[in-house]
UniProtKB/TrEMBL annotation:
Annotated keywords: Cell membrane, Membrane, Transmembrane, Transmembrane helix
Keyword DNA-binding: no
Cell wall biogenesis/degradation in keyword set: no
Membrane topology: Multi-pass membrane protein
Annotated compartments: Cell inner membrane
Organism annotation: Chaetomium fimeti
GO molecular function: transmembrane transporter activity
Coiled coil stretches, renumbered: none
Chain segments annotated as transmembrane: 30-47, 68-87, 93-110, 131-154, 166-188, 218-240, 285-302, 308-331, 343-363, 369-388
Protein known as: Major facilitator superfamily domain-containing protein
Amino acid sequence: MVSKGFWKRRSLRVPDDQQTKAAELTLRDSIYPICLVTILFFLWGFTRTPLASLGHAAWILRHFGYRAVFIWGLFLYGLGALLAIPAIIGRSFGGFCVCIFIIGNGLGSLETAANPYITVCGPPKFSEIRINIAQAFNGIGTVIAPVLGSYVFFNFDDDVALRNVQWVYLAIACFVFLLAGVFFLSVIPEITDADMAFQASETHAGTQDKPFRKQYRLFHAAFAQFCYTGAQVAIASYFINYAVETRSNTDSALASKFLAGSQAGFAIGRFGGAALMHFIKPRKVFLLFLTLCIVFGAPAITQRENTGLSMLFVVMLFESICFPTIVALGMRGLGRHTKRGSGWIVGGVMGGACVPPLMGLAADRHGTGFSMIVPTLFFVAAWSYALAVNFVPAYRDTVDAFSTTEVGLRERDEDAVVGGGAVTSGTDVKVAGVENPEVANVEKV
């Protein structure tokens, strides 16, 4: 018989006004949940995530919690994969499109929760490093997926390939349902708005708690994310066309190999950028990388042959850290608005649906080479946020308050307790090595 405590510890609803220990997680405390959520980043690297509605995921996140969204997203992903099997057997294109829509909503839900969770799970000082390393596994997935696909799908006739696809979707469904079970059974930290408000006050970044509509730094970050993501997706979408049109003796097959190489550079850039952030402030690394995207993207507008193509290689290398770093920087100091605000920043991925058509229009009229002016201009628009977090005090000071804080770098057992164990900070803590705190001399931190 499963005890009531078992179900209580695994409840999917955590009130946002309830403060937990999550705001002060140490590196050791955060290792397991971070590793578990990082699997999700690798998982959606195996597909091109379509634009999914963020409404249902955002609602579940605010009314239940991160773990509930993880399970919901995996459920939708698995459901879509299972339903795809009869659609494939019946060769129903419409049915398969519906299944892809369900899968896309699952992946969209996972991305809605996973990015902010990795950002806030653990010491705030290392937020940018954590999310960039996690996102790097997404890049690995995008490199491995085409290679596996060539062996599973493209070396067989149509009938055999269809059977292989069915087995692949069945394997995906089994894996994601199993992973959903792991998330349900795992007791991972649940970060509430009360935790983030406490964290902001501890770093002195939340001394001016404003209404959501006045969080102008958040909306600037969401704008930057829209512009950056639009530019990134536009370049990736037209990379093959660019190579074919601007480089002699290049067909689509060769251009696709160039694209795979640039995606590998993208993944390497995230690991390298994360390592660089250990020595240089993340906001400065972000400014450097986004600036170099503009510097090398502009010549691709007019240069041709290997020169123009090499410019795009370098641009994709320096694109690597921008998306996750905007998420991490934009969430700084949101306090009680963290969950709601993270939805706006992640929602910036809509730029990936808006900018490529503009680039396509420019390509139709002036050629793919000249159309690179479109993503370059959107890089410049996103650059306004990189400049702000480095040179505008209201932005920079908030970011630096989290980058220098000691929250999470020391064990919580140093917190003060009074009387019969009441905690002065409002969190549940313990006193290391002391059996009876009432007889211990505990110094308030």
